[in-house]
Design a protein that fits this description.
It is a single chain. The chain is of the alpha+beta class. It folds into two domains: 2-72, no CATH class; 80-148, Nucleic acid-binding proteins (OB fold (Dihydrolipoamide Acetyltransferase, E2P), Beta Barrel). Helices cover 48% and strands 24% of the residues. The chain is built from four helices and five strands, in the order H-H-H-E-E-E-E-E-H. It has a five-stranded mixed β-barrel. Helix 1 (2-19) packs antiparallel against helix 2 and helix 2 (25-39) packs antiparallel against helix 3. It is rod-shaped, with a radius of gyration of 27 Å. The chain starts with a helix and ends with a helix.
Amino acid sequence: MVILWVVAAALFLIVEAVTAAMNSIWFVAGSLAALAGAALGAPVWAQLALFVAVSGICFAILYPRLKRLLRRDSQPTNADMVIGQECVVTQRIDNLAGTGAVAIGGKIWTARSTGGETLELGTVVIADSIEGVKLMVTPVRQAQAAGTE
């Protein structure tokens, strides 16, 4: 069983090194705990229990911390910062014709209507999302009505 746990730990470590996604690091710790149990002569059921318990505990303790740490390094792009902002239609938005633009943050974005309606020049809209290089927008009056329901 010692060889099995050494091989298991090595395989989990290789998977973790290749993916770098923090998917199997807990199993490395569990394998090492089971290896220690095997080296001390523990029965197979105890080795398996050690593997499951240590892997579970490591996952429960480390995963939330790693998730917060990885999320903290994420920086929104300038494009992400326009989501939820009000902007003004500078070119008539017509999804069927494939035309439309809005001004937001001193920049002009090509735009399409989220609801598919045609939006006239000067309409105040809210940026809902970004699809490719186009800003998806909803007229403010519709966005406000949806928020009050």
